[in-house]
UniProtKB/TrEMBL annotation:
Superkingdom assignment: Eukaryota
This protein's GO CC annotations: mitochondrial inner membrane; proton-transporting ATP synthase complex
Protein name as it appears in the record: ATP synthase F(0) complex subunit e, mitochondrial
Lineage, top ranks: Eukaryota, Fungi, Dikarya, Ascomycota, Pezizomycotina
Keyword field: Acetylation, ATP synthesis, CF(0), Hydrogen ion transport, Ion transport, Membrane, Mitochondrion, Mitochondrion inner membrane, Transport
Pfam families registered for this protein in UniProt: ATP-synt_E
Predominant place of localization: mitochondrion
InterPro entries: ATP_synth_F0_esu_mt (IPR008386)
Region (Disordered): 54-75
Mitochondrion is among the record's keywords: yes
């Protein structure tokens, strides 16, 4: 009977060690996934900030009046003047 008890102790010890290792391994996997998700979110926010800075710089940059006679040729710009643009194009021809 002493041998059977020793085997049972060994089995349960291995089971407990396996459970502890499983919990540790799962927590390390979960932590890695959370870290990767946080890194992706940080990179996304960096891209958004860089894009916003570029848009702001483009919006607030002084317009070069020497080219095109001061006419804004971007139709997306809020200061775009169709009449002035058409006059400029007519003058080129």
């Amino acid at each position: 009977m002493a041998a059977a008890q020793g085997v049972n102790v060994l089995r349960y010890s291995a089971l407990v060690a396996g459970l502890i290792y499983g919990v540790y391994h799962q927590s390390s996997i979960t932590a890695g996934i959370k870290r990767a998700e946080a890194d992706r979110e940080y990179a996304r926010q960096e891209r958004l900030i860089a894009q916003a800075k570029a848009e702001w710089k483009k919006k607030t940059a002084p317009q070069d009046k020497s080219t095109d006679g001061g006419v804004i040729t971007n139709p997306e710009d809020s200061r775009f003047d169709l009449e002035a643009y058409l006059k400029m194009k007519a003058g080129e021809n």
